[in-house]
Amino acid sequence: MKILLAGSLRGKGGIQSHLRWLSKALVEEGIEVLVLSLGYHRDSIADVQDLHKPTSSNIQVIFCNPSRWRRILETTAIIKNFSPDVYLAVGTGWNLFVPPLLSGVKTKRIFHEVMSGVPNGWHDSRWIVRWCFDEVIGQSPTVAKTFAKFFGWKKAVLAIPAMPEPLELSASLPLVVSKKVELGKAKAGFFSRLAPHKQAFWLVQQWDLLKDILGELHIHGSGPEEPLIREYIASQKIGDRVKCFGRYPEGQAYVDLLSSFDLTLLPTIGAEGAPLVLLESMACGVPFIAYGVGGIPDYGVNNPNVLVVPTKPDVFISGVKQMVYLLSQGQINQEKLQNFYLERYSYSILKKTWLSYFFSQ
Fold it and tell me: Which CATH code fits 2-164+347-359?
C-alpha cells in the first residue's frame, strides 16, 4: 500500500504532529509513505526524518513551492508520479483539494477535518470536499457531525482522532496518584497560543474572581496578547500570584512543567477542533476546565475528571470553582484521568485505529 499524506509540516501545531506521528505509524508497518508539505519550510524535514530512523527508506518528504498556482501544478505532478492508493488531506487550501483531480490518478481521496467543521465563509476551500473526495473523517464525533451539517456532506462521516505528540514516547509520563488539593492553594495553568480567541488575557482579567479559590495562575504561551498580559499583571501588581512565562518547552521539560499544575484552564471561544493541549493535560493526570466549542465536548464523554462548560464567562468561573472544590474533596481521580488518555488517545491505541481504517479500504 502507498499512502500520500498532504498538509503542512511548518511549526509545532496539531496538523504537524498528526502528519509526523501518523507517518511513523504507517512506516512501522512497512507501508510506503509520501508526506507532502505545502509550505516552503525545509527546516521541518528533520523532525520527520528523526521519527523514522532507521526505517526512513519507506518514507519521502517533499516541500512544495509557496506560490499558489505553481504549488498546485507541482503538487499535481508529485501525486501523479507517486500514484498513491490513498490520498489523505489534512487542513485547508485549494492546493490540497484540486491537485488530486488534476493528476488523473485513481486513488482513494480522504479528507481529515481537524478543525471545528464550521465553514469560514463561502470562500472556504473545504466546500470542494463534497465534490471531489470519497470520504471524510472528523477529528471527533462532534466535529464529524458538524462538518456533515455545514458542508452538506451526505455520506457517513467516521470519527478518528488526530495523532498528538505522544508524551508517553517522547518523554516519561509521571506516575500519577490521586491527591487532594487544599482550597485556595490550587495551581492553575494555561497552555496555548496567546491569541484573542484563546482568551488568556480575559482569564488574567478575571483574577479578582479567582484569587480566593486559586493559589496561582500561570500563563504559558506566546502570541499577540503576551504584551497585554504582562502589562496588566504589572499594572495590577498581581505578579506574586499571576505570572506570564512566554513560550513553553517541549519534551520532558514540558511534561515536568505540566505535571506541576493541579488543573489547566482553556476558555477558548475559537473554531477549535479538539485541542491537543487538553490531551496532554490528561496524559499527565491534570484535570482541565474548557469551553465546549468544536470537538472539546467529546473529551468529556464518560470522563468525570474534567469539566466542559457552556461558553458563558460566569459559567467558566463557576466551573473553576467547582473543579477546585472537587479537588479539595478528593473527588477528582487523577490516576483514572491519565488512564483515560492511555486507553483512548495514546500512540499505540491510535496507531491501531488508523491502521485498521487504512487496511479496510
Answer: 3.40.50.2000
Give the residues across from 318 on adjacent strands: none
Dihedral sign from CA coordinates of 25, 27, 29, 33: positive
* Cβ–Cβ < 8 Å for 251, 280: no
Give dist(CA 145, CA 311) in Å, integer: 20
HSE-CB at 255 with a 13 A cutoff on CA atoms is 18
CATH classification code of 168-343: 3.40.50.2000
Q: 74-92 burial string, b = 16+ CB within 10 Å, else e? A: bbbebbeebebbbbbbbbb
Q: Which of 47-61, 128-142, 220-234, 282-296 has the lowest mean pLDDT?
A: 47-61
Which one-letter amino acid corresponds to residue 315? V
Mean pLDDT of all residues belonging to the chain: 92
**Which residues contact residue 121 at a Cβ distance below 8 angstroms, ignoring those fewer than 6 apart?**
none
Q: Which residues of 119-148 are buried (b: 16+ CB within 10 A; e: fewer)?
A: eeeeeebbebbbeebebbbbbbebbbebbb
Alpha-carbon distance 193 to 181, whole Å?
A: 28
Instruction: Identify the helix (H) or strand (E) that includes residue 360.
Output: none
Strand 263-266 and strand 242-246: the pairing is: unpaired
Domain boundaries, the chain: 2-164+347-359, 168-343
